């Protein structure tokens, strides 16, 4: 069973525009969520996280939104840059379990 | 560079051989995790250590897999009698107690022929 789902395998966005990456989860026990970026042949790099006590967290060009009732989170990148082209993974965990459940990733391509 | 390091970065082996991977976490991090990532999938949790104690193992970790962290610093992941299905990227991550964010190494890509 896929507890964390990223239903869009790929996304193309023009440079300077907004990129919106989506993630859905099924386990209502999840209370901590993260986004990672991954370039080819490298490990995932932490981008931003959000606890379930919040519905929004912002860090520079990156904002994560959490809708607990819909069990949905999204990552907004504004403005998108060519260097943002990578695979983005969302991950979820239950605090104290110390392990992440990852989605399958969305490949973002930012076109110059 | 004070990030998580993994060695080797790439490993090609023949089916039936044993392989061992090493992970050096960020120095003050006492939690260390192993994940496996196959093509088109996200990383899947394998096991984790707090200091030298292995606290949880996924059912993905068959009897052919063993992980150790003898001194609570670096960790090794050994796969015995490798199978083609073991071909994957093996990722290590670390974090400090009471922190939720894990930091990943570059991974070891294993190809079993």
Describe this structure in words.
The complex is a heterodimer of chains A (112) and B (113). Chain A is an all-beta fold and 112 residues long. Chain A has strands spanning 4-5, 10-14, 19-25, 32-38, 45-51, 56-59, 62-67, 72-77, 86-93, 101-102, 106-111. The termini of chain A are far apart. The model of chain A has no long low-confidence stretch (mean pLDDT 94). Chain B has 113 residues and is mainly β. Chain B has no helices and 11 strands. In chain B, strands 2, 4, 5, 6, 9, 10 and 11 form a 7-stranded mixed beta sheet that branches. Chain B has a 4-stranded antiparallel beta sheet with strand order 1-3-8-7, with no helix packed on it. Chain B starts with a strand and ends with a strand. The mean pLDDT of chain B is 93. The interface between A and B is medium-sized, with 23 and 24 residues.
Beta-strand percentage range of chain A: over 45%
Distance between the termini of chain A: 38 Å
- Helical region count of chain A? 0
Assembly level? heterodimer
Radius of gyration of chain B, Cα only, in angstroms?
Answer: 13 Å
Q: Distance between the terminal alpha carbons of chain B, to the nearest Å?
A: 33 Å
Number of helices of chain B: 0
* Unreliable residue runs of chain A: none
Structural class of chain A: mainly beta
Averaged pLDDT of chain B? 93
Write the layout of secondary structure elements.
The complex is a heterodimer of chains A (112) and B (113).
Chain A: E1 4-5, E2 10-14, E3 19-25, E4 32-38, E5 45-51, E6 56-59, E7 62-67, E8 72-77, E9 86-93, E10 101-102, E11 106-111
Parallel strand pairs in A: 2-11
Antiparallel strand pairs in A: 1-3, 3-8, 4-5, 4-9, 6-7, 7-8, 9-10, 9-11
Chain B: E1 5-7, E2 10-13, E3 19-24, E4 31-37, E5 44-50, E6 53-57, E7 65-68, E8 75-79, E9 88-95, E10 103-104, E11 108-112
Parallel strand pairs in B: 2-11
Antiparallel strand pairs in B: 1-3, 3-8, 4-5, 4-9, 5-6, 7-8, 9-10, 9-11
